[in-house]
């Protein structure tokens, strides 16, 4: 069963709630399993560019089926490969903090990414809170 719009909005609300608790203004993007934007929520005061960054990070992890940290390791290990991806990929690939796969069991149903945190770990902390709202 694919990720529903209601679930995507719940994910965004979970991340925004945590961001409010840690005094961060973030944008959260949720994409489907193919990397297509399903929902986007930008908090008041979040950096304007954070919307594009969040969407790109979410799509990247969805397309590679790897969380942000694993995708970053892959990028660091294969810089030549990633340098050429812009020739074939319809969008840029961006590995970064605060990006995670959304799974239902062993099946990837989408991904989320958070952008805009200013202190180390804020994007990751908000992403973890977002995933926690979907836990059974």
In spatial order, strands of the major sheet run: 2-1-4-3
Percent range of helical residues? 40-55%
State the distance separating the first and last CA atoms: 15 Å
SS element count, helices: 5
Could you please say which CATH topology applies here?
Answer: Beta-Lactamase
The arrangement of helices and strands along the chain is HEEHHHEEH
Beta strands, count: 4
Q: Give start-end ranges of low-pLDDT stretches.
A: none
Question: What amount of the residues lies in strands?
Answer: 15-25%
In short:
With 136 residues, the chain is an alpha+beta fold.
Key descriptive features of the protein:
136 residues; alpha+beta; four-stranded antiparallel β-sheet; 20% strand
Tell me the layout of helices and strands.
Elements: H1 5-21, E1 27-32, E2 37-42, H2 50-64, H3 68-77, H4 79-84, E3 99-104, E4 107-115, H5 122-132
Antiparallel strand pairs: 1-2, 1-4, 3-4
Helix pairs in contact: 1-5
Overview of this protein structure:
This protein has 136 residues and is an alpha+beta fold. It has one domain (5-132): Haem-degrading domain (Beta-Lactamase, 2-Layer Sandwich), CATH 3.30.450.150. It has five helices and four strands. The chain has helices spanning 5-21, 50-64, 68-77, 79-84, 122-132; strands at 27-32, 37-42, 99-104, 107-115. The chain has a four-stranded antiparallel sheet. Helix 1 (5-21) packs across helix 5. The longest helix is centred in the first third of the chain and has 17 residues, at 5-21. The radius of gyration is 14 Å and the shape is globular. The protein starts with a helix and ends with a helix. The relative contact order is 0.24. The mean pLDDT is 94.
